[in-house]
Write a structure and sequence with these properties.
Strand content: 15-25%
Helix content: 40-55%
CATH topology of the largest domain: Heat Shock Protein 90
Number of domains: 3
Structural class: alpha+beta
Radius of gyration: 27 Å
CATH class of the largest domain: Alpha Beta
Distance between the termini: 68 Å
Number of strands: 10
Number of helices: 9
């Protein structure tokens, strides 16, 4: 009782804007703006407000009325479309660059191998040529990751049981995590199968587990689960720019108990060369490669995270009937 709109609905960072708008209304001006308000649960909502002053004959403002529309979902959908379009543009550019780099590095690696054979073991310039070949090999690996992101990899799809793939890879994934982080493989709850390239699925798992390792401290846990799933109207509405096809899928999820990510970081997580690691500790191609592989398989990948709450990547591969 006795509390005003200003104290109930206006977040602290919008108080100055509210006071300015109120002053304009009291001077007789109609106002239209998009801003932020909070609901009863304290959640921030993006809103569109049309506010109108009502005056008496002498021009005195005696009342104010407003129409407030919650546009949070509209703005979220617009941001989702911008994100997907940004990834498409970058994917096209990355594919062109990767092809050119790959072609050039193939020539460098071939010539380097020839020079090393001609020099023979123990030659004084062998270390220099080895360094050149190593740098060229690293550039070639980067170009392959960019090709994966741009969905231009050559695949050899087969009918797969994703739970079996994860279980057989578990020893390698445990070694990748080290002794301080525990790997958990959930029970094989999925009956569906997928048509995918097994080596590419393994690359996806290795990259996601490596990402979890870097975000999880001692005593942490990484959980891989496989289950049947259905994507329908809710997912199509939630991800309007991802061209979600309704139907049956097999969900492969990788969840960790790490430090998590804020919304700003999460919005860029699949972009190539985006990384939160210190300079020299990562180039930011692992998750973009995962994104490209999943998309080339006709699937969907979404991430959920919050600071202190860990991260979960959910990958939906289209389910197929076993032969």
């Amino acid at each position: 009782m006795g509390r005003t709109e200003r104290s109930l609905l206006v977040p602290p960072d919008r108080l100055e804007e509210y006071d300015t708008t109120l002053g304009q209304l009291q001077s007789g001006r109609e106002m239209r703006l998009e801003t932020v308000r909070v609901d009863r649960a304290g959640r921030r909502l993006e809103v569109s407000i049309t506010a109108t002053p009502h005056e008496e004959a002498l021009g005195e403002v005696v009342a104010l009325s407003s129409i407030v529309r919650d546009v949070s979902e509209l703005r979220r959908a617009e941001e989702e479309r911008r994100r997907v379009e940004r990834l498409r543009v970058v994917s096209t550019l990355a594919g062109g660059v990767a092809h050119e780099v790959n072609n050039q590095m193939t020539a460098v690696l071939g010539l380097g191998a020839f020079v090393l054979r001609e020099l023979g073991p123990g030659h004084g310039q062998e270390p220099d040529v080895q360094g050149m070949v190593g740098a060229a090999a690293q550039a070639a690996r980067m170009s392959q990751q960019l090709l994966a992101f741009s969905r231009q990899q050559l695949f050899e799809p087969r009918l797969l049981d994703l739970h079996r793939v994860a279980s057989e890879l578990a020893p390698d994934l445990s070694n990748l995590l080290g002794g301080d982080t525990r790997l958990v493989i959930g029970r094989g709850a999925a009956r569906g199968r997928v048509r995918a390239d097994p080596s590419q699925v393994e690359r996806v798992l290795v990259s996601l587990v490596a990402n979890s390792r870097d975000a999880t401290g001692p005593g942490g846990r990484v959980t891989i689960a496989v289950e049947d799933a259905t994507l329908g109207a809710d997912e199509i509405e939630a991800h309007p720019a991802d061209e979600v096809a309704a139907g049956s899928y097999v969900l492969l999820s990788v969840a960790d108990t790490g430090r998590g990510m804020d919304a700003a970081t999460l919005a860029h997580v699949f972009e190539p060369f985006f990384t939160t690691k210190p300079f020299g500790e990562g180039i930011g191609l692992g998750l973009s490669m995962v994104y490209g592989i999943v998309k080339q398989h006709g699937g969907q990948i979404w991430a959920a995270s919050a600071p202190g709450d860990g991260t979960v990547f959910r990958i939906y591969f289209p389910a197929v009937q076993a032969d």
